[in-house]
Amino acid sequence: MADLALVVAEQQDGKLKKITYEMLTAARQVADELDTEVGVIVLGDGLDADALAADLGARGADVVFVGDDPALGSYAAEAYSTVIQRLVEDEEPTLVLFGMTPMGRDLAPCVAAKVNGGLASDITGLRVEDGELVITRPIFSGQAIATVRVKRPPVLATVRPNTWSAAQPAGDDEADVETLDVDDLPENAVHVLSVEAKESERPELTEASIIVAGGRGLQGPENFHLIEELADLLGAAVGTTRAVVDAGWRPYEEQVGQTGKTVSPQLYIAIGISGAIQHVSGMRTSRYIVAINKDPEAPIFKIADYGIVGDLFKVVPELIQAVKEYKAANQ
Ligand SMILES: Cc1cc2nc3c(=O)[nH]c(=O)nc-3n(C[C@H](O)[C@H](O)[C@H](O)COP(=O)(O)OP(=O)(O)OC[C@H]3O[C@@H](n4cnc5c(N)ncnc54)[C@H](O)[C@@H]3O)c2cc1C
After folding, report:
1. Which of 71, 217, 250, 283 is a good FRET partner for 90, with 20 to 30 A between their CA atoms?
2. Domains 4-179 and 210-329 share a fold
3. What is the DSSP letter of 302?
4. Annotated domain spans of the chain
5. Is the CB of 110 within 6 Å of ligand 1?
6. In the chain, which stretches have pLDDT less than 50?
7. What is the pTM of this model?
8. Helix, strand or coil for residue 276?
């Protein structure tokens, strides 16, 4: 039937993650041109289908497919891919979008193998040309952009977070709800015994709109309070480099780059970071890049939109003060 663009939602405790709304924007954009409906599949345990239909409908989804079962409470490749496979075989969507997230990176190839579809990973662009989907994706650590067409339907793709803006509620349309068959799911090879949420007020690195990242120029872990204070004032996540992680100054989950996380925030502030290719490959698609470095020849300035050449121990406290004053004046 091929009249559906499908988004594979990500949720935690029934609350949809931002990447779901971003994928909804991407799907809606091409669905209008392809003249297809937009569906969102939400899997979990104890989901509120009516609330999902209201929320996703107001943001542009036509239909919400809900798979609700204890076996879907935590992400597991076997059960999730089986439910999605059944839906794809029933509905034959033109396009299936996953987040380029830990879940999506694992799930998308499983589904692609099961439905024999073509998969484009880490996409940053999606358009329709002559009725066909055309995808763009960074390659070679972001040094080049590849344009690809997936020849074997359905087209599956993982979407880089923060590339599309999140779909916002507009109006009070409700999406239709379809309840999915969750019988006879395969036994999961991995059982999640417990999930310990990290206690942090800061946004998750890959979801954050603003990232303040500190490098070896900070000279030691005791100086990262500067990065944290600026981040908290801006509602930002904290990022860092591998050099800092290897030195044991900051945890690995904050590492941005080739062997860390790929991020694409609206604003990336790189402080005391040289801009090695392995770091840049993880953040070069940020909307705006601000670099603070005392070395005017530092490679980070080649990709920065705004650069401050100076000693971070002087510049950052001034920046913190300026943000505080701005916030006080605009409260
Ligand atoms: C296989 C491989 C994978 C890698 N993966 C990653 C990865 O995922 N992520 C990653 O980040 N790196 C990665 N690296 C390491 C990468 O090559 C760099 O070594 C690392 O990014 C450098 O980190 P840095 O910028 O913090 O440190 P440095 O390169 O040491 O830069 C510190 C910067 O701080 C500036 N500075 C110093 N003092 C001040 C001051 N007072 N005020 C202002 N500026 C100051 C300096 O001018 C300098 O530019 C990888 C390397 C390899 C080989």
Report:
1. 71
2. yes
3. H
4. 4-179, 210-329
5. no
6. 1
7. 0.81
8. coil
